[in-house]
Amino acid sequence: MSLPITARTDAHGHLEIGGCDCCDLAAQFGTPLYVFDEATLRDRCRAFRAAFERRHPDSRILYAGKAFLNRAVAQIIAEEGLGLDVVSGGEMAVARAAGFPPDRVCFHGNNKSLDELQMALDWGVGRIAVDNFHELALLGRLAAARDRPVEILLRLAPGVEPRTHAHISTGGVASKFGFPIADGQAEAAVQAALTTPGLRLLGLHAHIGSQIHDLAPYGQTVRVMVEFAAQMAERHGMHLAEISPGGGWAIRTTPAEQAPTPEEIAEAIVDTLHNEVARHGLPLPRLTVEPGRAIIGPAGVALYTVGARKEVPGGPTYVFVDGGMADNIRPALYGARYQAIAASRANEPPSEMVTIAGRYCESGDILIRDAALPHLVAGDLLAVPAVGAYCLSLASNYNLARRPAVVLVHGGQAHLIRRREEYEDLLRLDAITDH
Fold first, then answer.
1. Residues labelled catalytic
2. What are the tens digits of pLDDT across the range 25-54?
3. What confidence tens digit (pLDDT) does each residue in 109-146 have?
4. Is 259 in contact with 213 (CB distance < 8 Å)?
5. Residue 3: left if φ>0, alpha if ψ -120 to 50, beta else—which one?
6. Contacts of 90 (CB under 8 A, 6+ apart)
7. pTM of the predicted model, to two decimals?
């Protein structure tokens, strides 16, 4: 079971996380409820920092905020000495409100607006990862009015396609992200960046996908990037001061899955980087990596209350919960798989195989198929671990559902870090009230 590191079963047979009884949390805050274990979150931050800095001291870990970001999470990430990868004005606004150091922020995205770029420069972000020629031109115009250079990375499309769902594969030549190397666009981007006044090209960035179990594509990505850097050094005098092969590492969400550890990830990337720069005669650059899911995913657990059941003769037995695709669309979107535990009866062995279905008006609103659980009845509490990443980021108001509350637990204390939406919140943005 992929539970947070503080999870245990208490004397009442209830699942406990961070010293808090999940049944008590559900009674206090309602369900659906997302519970984040602070100890697990900090442990993952420290594990990544230690693994990379031990092998390559000039390393920086940037938390990928798109996995899940609010002020409380941003403050913890900052306290643990990580940087932050943001992809929108909204994520920048949250980071700024949290007091996150802007020099540790890198701004990504394939269609940044002029206003967002201006916002990033006004705040003083440390890096902008440029994705296309349009953005290069926009930044060039903005940089002309600045008294110091705008430091950038160029995002490459390295032509590496890992084994993952097509919707979360981002490194191929046909990807919507980055400058392709194969057709010469990346080289043209290097030339443009080096000759645009006000821009300082620090290095190269790539990101090949998400929920990737195999580390071999990362070694391939680093080899492609360093070879390209060597060519650009020879042809255009580019100095590779910084390199980032991105993030996207998988976490374990079911018993059958295996996921790479921070130590294994660091070893694969750093060893390849050191070998390749030595082979091409380049100095060692700063290395940045961008784990999001791998840091926050294992820290999150979703709690649901069981409602009705439906038994189909010769078919599945459905157990319905009070959440579903509005708070976790990942199973419907790209086949993400999870497991579950009966949080209110955690000591009981499984007695049946059921399908956990949500409450929303879609046949695809299925959270877990073939879940081995005790016989669940209305009022039971169900926990789904390893949901800290992307579930809340992708959450919606489908069926005008209220997005769930989020609590942070540590040392037996629970802190509400995002309240549940109220019906008034669903009406607040309506512009016409009487028509």
1. 361
2. 999 999 999 999 999 999 999 999 999 999
3. 999 999 999 999 999 999 999 999 999 999 999 999 89
4. yes
5. beta
6. none
7. 0.94
Token pair 């006004």 is found at 122
Domains in the chain (CATH in brackets) are 8-37+297-427 (2.40.37.10), 108-291 (3.20.20.10)
- Asked if 13 and 46 touch (Cβ cutoff 8 Å), the reply is no
pLDDT at 165 over 50: no
Question: What strands lie across the sheet with 15-17, from one edge to the other?
Answer: 8-9, 15-17, 20-21
With b for 16 or more beta-carbon neighbours within 10 A and e for fewer, the 14-51 pattern comes to bbbbbbbbbbebbeebebbbbbbbbbbbbbbbebbbeb
> Both tokens of residue 155?
């995002």
From 51, 39, 104, select the one nearest 76 (Cα to Cα).
39
Residue with tokens 């000759």: 195
* 169 φ/ψ angles, rounded to the nearest 5 degrees: -105, 125
Gap between the Cα atoms of 298 and 2, Å rounded: 7
**CA-CA distance, 235 to 115, in Å (whole number)?**
34
Query: How far is Cα 106 from Cα 1, in angstroms, rounded to an integer?
Result: 34
State how far the Cα of 154 lies from the Cα of 165, in Å rounded to an integer.
25
